[in-house]
């Protein structure tokens, strides 16, 4: 049970990271990207192939992010002057193009060349060997610090909603809904953080390699979230929001809209490239079929569930998605007598129904703001 929770924590952190990149592109900038998986694919393969050449894992992951950002640069120059519907078509085609190239291209695995269809195996993974007691205790200390910062940040986030209610006397109903939403989300994320913390302490002390990977993935997620929150509240982020609402306004103010869109696409791609590294490390062996377009749409589900244009909402969407996936995978076979293929289709149908209900009841997502809704654009 504990090892399964560690697995879910890594998956959630990886796809929360992946979805944060998409949320920057769509939720904050209004760029419709249906080929987001291309960045993850390039980041994963770059990290793995460089590590097999002896490049340190941290440097390999950075290069994976850089190559993913460069892909964003190429896509941006080719597509950002197109209309939104054409942009969506081109990006989904690019995602499939990257996967098919990897599938049909020989890859430099170590000192030999191997067909991409055979996949890549036996590559280095962070913290795969058991560290000594001092280092394990140090890792537990880092996890404890991360847990404390998370709980404090959630408490401050809830308190900020209460302060907004005191200053906003015109719309008390909306303020109360905001407080209720934040309080409920804060409790859920706090309980989840506690469960992960306890499981992490146990598995780091009685060391398993996945526990070390979980710690690294959570640290990277926390860092990326922290910097993104700073960026989207900065003048740069406000320009992105202005582009999302009506790009003619920032143009009239002398802003280079194309350059801002390009920056958003590249930074979102770099974040997805880092997520690709963690995805590859968790799988321990990668194949082209691991990077199907479905992963992009899973990411869209996470962003829509939590609320576009809200980084905490994106993380919440990833938590809900993987909680739903884990619960239905374990519970549904005991309730509904279907074979595995039909059960998988039924689970997809259920989450589609949930999304339909959510779009009717709260189209902006759980934590999204209605005035910042981009679905109708």
UniProtKB/TrEMBL annotation:
<dbReference type="InterPro" id="IPR001851">
    <property type="entry name" value="ABC_transp_permease"/>
</dbReference>
<keyword id="KW-0472">Membrane</keyword>
<feature type="transmembrane region" description="Helical">
    <location>
        <begin position="58"/>
        <end position="79"/>
    </location>
</feature>
<keyword id="KW-0812">Transmembrane</keyword>
<feature type="transmembrane region" description="Helical">
    <location>
        <begin position="265"/>
        <end position="287"/>
    </location>
</feature>
<feature type="transmembrane region" description="Helical">
    <location>
        <begin position="211"/>
        <end position="228"/>
    </location>
</feature>
<protein>
    <submittedName>
        <fullName>Branched-chain amino acid ABC transporter permease</fullName>
    </submittedName>
</protein>
<feature type="transmembrane region" description="Helical">
    <location>
        <begin position="179"/>
        <end position="205"/>
    </location>
</feature>
<feature type="transmembrane region" description="Helical">
    <location>
        <begin position="86"/>
        <end position="102"/>
    </location>
</feature>
<dbReference type="InterPro" id="IPR043428">
    <property type="entry name" value="LivM-like"/>
</dbReference>
<feature type="transmembrane region" description="Helical">
    <location>
        <begin position="344"/>
        <end position="361"/>
    </location>
</feature>
<feature type="transmembrane region" description="Helical">
    <location>
        <begin position="133"/>
        <end position="158"/>
    </location>
</feature>
<feature type="transmembrane region" description="Helical">
    <location>
        <begin position="6"/>
        <end position="24"/>
    </location>
</feature>
<feature type="transmembrane region" description="Helical">
    <location>
        <begin position="299"/>
        <end position="324"/>
    </location>
</feature>
<feature type="transmembrane region" description="Helical">
    <location>
        <begin position="31"/>
        <end position="52"/>
    </location>
</feature>
<keyword id="KW-1133">Transmembrane helix</keyword>
<keyword id="KW-1003">Cell membrane</keyword>
<dbReference type="Pfam" id="PF02653">
    <property type="entry name" value="BPD_transp_2"/>
</dbReference>
């Amino acid at each position: 049970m504990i090892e399964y929770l560690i697995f879910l924590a890594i998956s959630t952190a990886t796809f929360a990271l992946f979805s944060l990149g998409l949320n920057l592109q769509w939720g904050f900038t209004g760029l419709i990207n249906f080929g987001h998986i291309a960045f993850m694919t390039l980041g994963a393969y770059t990290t793995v192939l460089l590590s097999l050449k002896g490049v340190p894992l941290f440097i390999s992951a950075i290069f994976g992010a850089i190559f993913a950002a460069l892909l964003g640069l190429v896509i941006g120059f080719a597509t950002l002057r197109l209309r939104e519907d054409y942009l969506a078509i081109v990006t989904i085609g690019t995602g499939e193009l990257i996967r098919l190239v990897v599938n049909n291209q020989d890859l430099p695995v170590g000192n030999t060349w191997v067909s991409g269809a055979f996949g890549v195996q036996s590559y280095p993974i962070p913290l795969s060997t058991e560290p000594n007691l001092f280092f394990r205790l140090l890792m537990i200390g880092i996890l404890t610090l991360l847990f404390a910062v998370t709980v404090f940040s959630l408490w401050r986030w809830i308190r900020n909603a209460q302060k907004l209610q005191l200053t906003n006397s015109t719309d008390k109903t909306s303020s109360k809904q905001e407080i209720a939403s934040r309080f409920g989300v804060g409790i859920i994320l706090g309980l989840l953080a506690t469960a992960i913390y306890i499981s992490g302490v146990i598995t780091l002390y009685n060391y398993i390699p996945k526990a070390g990977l979980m710690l690294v993935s959570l640290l990277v997620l926390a860092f990326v979230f922290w910097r993104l929150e700073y960026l989207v509240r900065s003048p740069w982020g406000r320009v992105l929001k202005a582009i999302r609402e009506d790009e003619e306004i920032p143009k009239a103010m002398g802003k280079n809209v194309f350059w801002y869109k390009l920056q958003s696409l590249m930074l979102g791609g770099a974040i997805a490239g880092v997520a690709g590294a963690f995805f590859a490390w968790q799988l321990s062996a990668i194949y082209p079929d691991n990077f199907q377009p479905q992963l992009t749409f899973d990411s869209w589900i996470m962003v829509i569930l939590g609320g576009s244009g809200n980084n905490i909402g994106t993380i919440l969407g990833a938590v809900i998605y993987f909680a739903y996936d884990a619960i239905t995978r374990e519970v549904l076979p005991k309730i509904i007598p279907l074979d595995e293929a039909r059960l998988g289709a039924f689970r997809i149908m259920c989450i589609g129904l949930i999304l339909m209900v959510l779009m009717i009841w709260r189209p902006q997502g759980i934590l999204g703001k209605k005035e910042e809704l981009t679905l109708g654009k």
